Amino acid sequence: MAGLFPSLLLLLVPLSLTALAEASPSSTHDKFLPDKIARELAGYQDVVEQIVDYAVNGPGQNQSYDRLATFTDAFGSRLSGTQNLENSIDYMLEYLRKDGLDNVHGEDVNVTRWLRNQESARLVEPRDYVIAISSLGSSVGTPEEGILAYAIVVRSFDELVTRMDEVTGKIVVFNQDYEGYPKSAIYRVASASRAAEFGAVATLIRSVAPFSIHSVHTGIQFYNESLPKIPTACITIEDAEMLYRMEQRGTRLRIQLIMGAENLNMTRSRNTVAEITGSVYPEQVVVVSGHIDSWDVGQGAMDDGGGVFISWQALTTVRALGLKPKRTLRLVLWTDEEAGGVGSQQYYDAHKTEAGNYSVLLESDEGVFTPYGMEFTGSGAAMMVITAA
Questions:
Q1: Strand, coil or helix: what is 314?
Q2: Among residues 240, 216, 221, 192, which one has the least CA distance to residue 133?
Q3: Most buried of 147, 186, 195, 223, CB within 10 angstroms?
Q4: Which of the residues are catalytic?
Q5: d(CA 20, CA 37)
Q6: pTM of this prediction exceeds 0.85
Q7: 93-134: per-residue pLDDT in tens?
Q8: CATH number of 117-260
Q9: What residue ranges do the domains of the chain occupy?
């Protein structure tokens, strides 16, 4: 059931937005939906009820979950540049064809190849303690013998600047407060270069999460190419807090860090595409999407297997019910999203001359729990349709 409600959103919003293209810009204004579009939206009520019944009581019940479980059990993690990712894409292409979808194919993408390899961290002063770490995507590694250095702990970039004279030759530990994902993730993304500017030899970042059970997170980070590239990894919230408390008491901290991370030459992968061809305006497209790649330290079930399979489920449901969308419904499963949207950027580059034919593009990549809402970028007229739907 976890994937049910997001999949319904993916179905209902494109159905609603089909009405928008028939209204001229002058027919919409800031506060009221034109009567023609409002009536068309209301006319989809029977379709909505069909979809809900199929998903809740019919053959669609738990279908996306069962497919996801089979997929993640078979392939596990799907790191960009690995054969396992390519095997999982082959699997999806096979089963999308078996599902009877149209125009099933892969589109080549040049993708990043980053390997984690061995990693470890240990507090060696004032006592011996193993620090759990997870190297960040695109990070460089340490020398083979590792880095042994004293550490300082800061809670913000402002404090880093204030203490810049203490940074040279040190490992900088960031123990930033969690203030929501977008605001806090900047520490994971940018801390290595921020600290390298003042002479740091490595950074350890408090995992970007609201709570922890001594769990360490990973994610992408980016270097400022004009600055030295230093190793960077996440640590648990508990360890970040412990190191901060120790420093506050005046204790000197010395850490040994070993990371075998390496960046290899780019290689080939594929975005995965499948469609239900539109019955009236086949050249006009509504995209539902998720990303098929994942990090290497889990199964990629939530990030973003759930998004992949509820997006597929949207097309499965439309086809199973014999619905005939006016516009082409296109499923796109992005590759190499975790490295910064590589697959989606190359898709745009390949299709930008067709941009005028896209009515709406939806991506599910923020979890498959009961949704709180939708993030939306578009015109005021489109926003009215979203709100009314």
A1: helix
A2: 216
A3: 195
A4: 337
A5: 7
A6: yes
A7: 999 999 999 999 999 999 999 999 999 999 999 999 999 999
A8: 3.50.30.30
A9: 4-112+265-388, 117-260
